[in-house]
Amino acid sequence: MNASLEKxxxxxxxxxxxxxxxxxxxxxxxxxxxxxxxxxxxxxxxFALPAILTHLCTQLFxxxxxxxxxxxxxxxxxxxxxxxxxxxxxxxxxxxxxFAVGASTLSAQRMGRRDQQEAKRIFTRIAIIAVAVGAAFAxxxxxxxxxxxxxxxxxxxxxxxxRIFVRIVFTDTPxxxxxxxxxAYYSTAGKPQMGLFCxxxxxxxxxxxxxxxxxxxxxxxxGSSLSTVLGELAVCVVGLIFFVNKKHEIHFIRxxxxxxxxxxxxxxxxxxxxxNSISFSIVNLITNKTLLSILGADGVAAxxxxxxxxxxxxxxxxxxxxxxxxxxxxxxxxxxxxxxxKILTHNLKFWFFGTILTTILGQLLRGPLISIxxxxxxxxSLFDMTYLGLTIEFFSVPFTCGCIFVMRMxxxxxxxNTASVLTISRNFIFRLSMLLLLxxxxxxxxxxxxxxxxxxxxxxxxxxLVIRNADNYGYGKKGLALRMQHxxxxxxxxxxxxxxxxxxx
Length: 505
Hints:
The protein is mainly α. The protein has 20 helices and 2 strands. The longest helix is centred in the last third of the chain and has 38 residues, at 337-374. The radius of gyration is 23 Å and the shape is globular.
């Protein structure tokens, strides 16, 4: 059997190979899915541009929701009540990233190996798992709402609005997790522009109902929460319509069991992303409690604004790696060492020039950016705190984005363990230690310095990991080619033979 399989593997990729009841190998993937094409740097940027705009628009709309509506029409106390719950949202998003990044990477690798059916099954299974986990989250959060709010630092003044936010927004968690899966798989399906459309749709629905619920009807936090849920529902409906359509490369099919296997594989692949997101909630929790003790509620509100703008700054790079990650995984799965090395070189150039430009523009525009949240009221202590924190924050952009690039690269290359080393050191060693040490030494200044200093240290670790793995992954002269010349494992061979006997479902 192995000899027969090896013979089939030697047939050129642009030929079709018929199995027992279907096709073992379809035509060259690049003919049907753009992630398999030979990209130039400009072509790669154009391909990733919808994903870049998606993440940028998503964060801008989110910031507008907080800045233009909640802080202006409801008040800074309402903004603080929402920000207290940011650790819970970070935990939910951690699971979303686990499912989305882990599963989409696995599917892209299977597509590179011409195992289309398994790629679709992984998608179907992870979508079902995401809904089930989201429902469990929604139940727990509603049952234990008040204890959770108290634990996160909400006092009696904040807890009423925090409770409203939990009851409405977090009940929508199953849909939120499903949207995350859909978002990751748009790029894997070669349709990143769908992510952009969904982001614009969500933002438009959210803003329209923010105007109606908050600015006109004065529903406060209730209005903000309802508009968020309606925006997510609209995006979910669009995603369901897209992935039900069998014309698309990735769509729903019968999963035929295998949920445990898929969850385990997705967990391994997306673990670093999960840790990165879950640690953000821990850092936010400690940051909020530190700011409450040093600066009060104004400090929490300032950190919320800085966090929103930080995410906007990094959105372009997150969008880029979200789209390029499946491209890396596909070429790794197809064992195309030359093309993969080319993609990695493109990533390095994009990071270098992009972060320099972002840092310069950020420093020049930090005043107008903060004014979005305050209007003409630029003389308050909250404005001064936000301005100081954001000025310091902008210097960490190259280091933050460099770490994001390296983590996503190792995940796509089938080495989540190395990505996890970077993630754990970045978030649990450097961030927490700096957050505990620097405010004790420097007071308010130490709070704003904690993240940039930790990102610098993390970037050094990332650089060391990249250099140490050069021989394995080919940033050098021959390492990647040597690594990728290996034949498929016996398990992989058996899986491909099984796929050869299955037709389209």
